[in-house]
Design brief:
By secondary structure, this protein is of the alpha/beta class. It contains nine helices and eleven strands. Helix content is 33%, strand content 16%.
Length: 293
């Protein structure tokens, strides 16, 4: 058995969306190579129904496969190389890893002028893999007051400002994020006005930045827009302990009728991509935020 286990990491935290992306990859590989795969949600287990009552105690930890920019087949070869054994070997109960590797069918493009690879989509994901992930992400706790108050139908505007902006940490310092939160917030107000013209549904605002959410909340209240609802879920990174906040935001995304995704990253957001790729929520991806300033 192969187990992808979610862990908290204060130095280099992995987002929950990235982790689920890695789980998709592992499940695809397990189907291709015919071995058993399971997800250990770690601290997220508190919020989702238990699907396996037993994880083998005889786990063999192998190389941490974080941040692999490779396709699933190459990833499979690396797994076999590092483990040195077949995953169905009866002498080994389980191999435990922690990965966010991209799925097999990832669609990537090359960005000009630096010719840097930019992953735009997780590609086609089979119904079997979607069902597997959904079965592991069935909520087991009651909704909080904000989720209960949501309108029956709504669209989500997800604004990913980047970890350096949102969490004021150094763990993402290697990523070039120069756009200010105030600049993003100001720009987003113009975008929201345009989006409101395209739908009759209210917009739920989700963001990893409290500054952006507060700004939008203040300005939208000023022109009496009852169709802009700013999530009161506190912005916290899953990898540093924000599991409940992440769970609540994901519930909101999964139930939405459409996602408008804004991000400072060329790959958008692995988090709101879960709702699109696994729960089939339509998504519209806009240009990188920092390109507008």
């Amino acid at each position: 058995m192969l187990i992808n286990t979610y862990k908290l990491d204060e130095d280099k935290p992995m987002g929950f969306g990235d982790f689920i992306r890695g789980c998709i990859s592992c499940h695809q590989i397990s189907l291709e190579y015919n071995f058993e795969f399971e997800i250990d949600l770690g601290p997220f287990s508190e919020f989702y129904k238990e699907t396996k009552k037993y994880f083998p105690k005889n786990n063999v930890p192998i190389t941490n496969f974080r941040n692999l920019t490779t396709n699933g087949k190459s990833f499979a070869k690396k797994l076999y190389f590092h483990s040195g054994k077949d995953f169905n070997n009866f002498n080994i109960s389980a191999f435990s890893i922690f990965t966010n590797v991209w799925p097999q069918n990832t669609i990537d493009t090359i960005e000009k002028p630096n010719l840097k690879h930019s992953y735009k989509s997780w590609g086609d994901i089979s119904k079997t893999t979607k069902k597997f992930i959904k079965d592991r992400l069935k909520p087991n706790i009651k909704k909080n007051d904000f989720l209960k108050s949501l309108p029956k139908e709504y669209e989500v505007v997800h604004i990913r400002t980047g970890d350096p902006n949102a969490f004021k940490n150094s763990f993402d310092a290697k990523v070039d994020v120069t756009t200010s939160e105030n600049g993003i917030a100001s720009y987003m107000m113009f975008q929201l006005v345009d989006i409101l013209k395209t739908t009759d549904k209210p917009l739920i605002i989700l963001s990893d930045s409290l500054v952006v959410k507060n700004y939008i909340n203040t300005i939208s209240s000023g022109f009496n827009s009852d169709r802009i609802i700013v999530s009161d879920v506190e912005a916290k990174h899953a990898g540093t302990g924000g599991c409940e906040e992440t769970f609540n935001d994901l519930c909101i995304l999964n139930k939405s009728k459409k996602i408008h995704q804004f991000s400072v990253y060329p790959w958008g957001s692995g988090f709101s991509n879960i709702a699109h790729h696994i729960y089939d929520v339509p998504i519209e991806r806009y240009d990188k935020l920092k390109s507008h300033f």
